[in-house]
């Protein structure tokens, strides 16, 4: 049976792919670490790492083992925290995932208020793509997620936080950027477009595509983003035009945002949890729902 100590050693080496740096992170010397990994491989009966004089790489089995070791470490940490919570009646931890734009709104407000109400709860956050939320919740690497997805994955629940309309995002020197009035999306049919891969956020991608089809064209993307934030950054670089949720259209001197004259398409920001969330997660969802209803993006 793999010990937690062995799992921590292996995860650190796998993340660094360098025994020296891994040993420094673990605050130990390199030879005992190398021996510990070799012993682990002998114990398992297969190679976890491909080693040469110049490099270290994960084997196929090692890549699978890495994810299981991370889960093992997380479970051990959770067990310790849960036991401490049971013994003292205090503490706990939540792991949150969110799309990049949610770190501008509404997460700052939600986390501030949640910390005020639950100061003993440790919060860990990570940026995720929408399609990663379901798997993260089901394998328990995440407890709560904010994504742009309407339909929950089997075993999860989605709670709508905010329904947003799209706006056009244009480079500052674009001929249509100078006006503040509504823009007919068809005027951008011949422009260079910044787009988002469908697998990253299916609902978001499909809403963008539907808007363009309704306007009578199908854009040919030249630049590909992985988030709303990077979409806007690419527009700011002057690479092309795009459409983004209005909530994301903060003050960006090099980007002009225009409402759409026939903008009926919407996109939801949702909170995703497991189908049977614990009481702490339910409180967080209720708080986020109440705050987003009372105070929209600025």
UniProtKB/TrEMBL annotation:
Key words of the record: DNA-binding, Transcription, Transcription regulation
Family: Belongs to the LysR transcriptional regulatory family.
SUPFAM superfamilies reported in the protein's UniProt record: Periplasmic binding protein-like II (SSF53850), Winged helix' DNA-binding domain (SSF46785)
InterPro entries found in the cross-reference section: LysR_HTH_N, LysR_subst-bd, WH-like_DNA-bd_sf, WH_DNA-bd_sf
Annotated protein name in UniProt: LysR family transcriptional regulator
Matching Pfam families: HTH_1, LysR_substrate
One GO term describing the cellular component: protein-DNA complex
Keyword Ion transport in annotation: no
GO molecular function: DNA binding; DNA-binding transcription factor activity
HTH lysR-type domain: residues covered: 2-59
């Amino acid at each position: 049976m793999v010990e937690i100590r062995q799992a921590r050693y292996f995860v650190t080496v796998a993340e660094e792919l360098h025994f020296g740096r891994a040993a420094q992170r673990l605050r130990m010397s390199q030879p005992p670490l190398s021996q510990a990994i070799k012993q682990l491989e002998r114990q398992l009966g297969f190679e976890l790492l491909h080693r040469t004089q110049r490099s270290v790489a994960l084997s196929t089995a090692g890549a699978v083992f890495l994810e299981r070791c991370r889960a093992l470490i997380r479970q051990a940490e959770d067990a310790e925290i849960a036991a401490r919570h049971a013994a003292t009646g205090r503490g706990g931890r939540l792991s949150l995932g969110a799309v990049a734009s949610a770190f501008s709104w509404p997460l700052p407000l939600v986390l501030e208020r949640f910390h005020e109400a639950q100061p003993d709860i440790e919060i860990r956050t990570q940026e995720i793509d929408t399609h990663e939320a379901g798997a993260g919740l089901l394998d328990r690497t995440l407890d709560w997620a904010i994504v742009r997805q309407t339909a929950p994955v089997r075993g999860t629940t989605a709670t709508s936080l905010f329904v947003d309309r799209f706006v056009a995002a244009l480079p500052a020197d674009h001929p249509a950027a100078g006006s503040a009035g509504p823009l007919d999306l068809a005027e951008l049919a011949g422009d260079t477009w910044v787009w988002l891969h469908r697998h990253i956020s299916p609902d978001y991608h499909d809403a963008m595509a539907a808007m363009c089809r309704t306007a009578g064209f199908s854009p040919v993307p030249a630049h590909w983003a992985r988030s709303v934030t990077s979409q806007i950054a690419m527009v700011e670089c002057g690479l092309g035009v795009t459409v983004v949720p209005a909530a994301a259209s903060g003050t960006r001197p090099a980007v002009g945002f225009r409402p759409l004259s026939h903008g009926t398409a919407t996109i939801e920001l949702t909170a995703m949890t497991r189908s049977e969330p614990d009481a702490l997660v339910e409180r967080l969802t209720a708080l986020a729902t109440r705050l987003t209803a009372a105070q929209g993006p600025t």
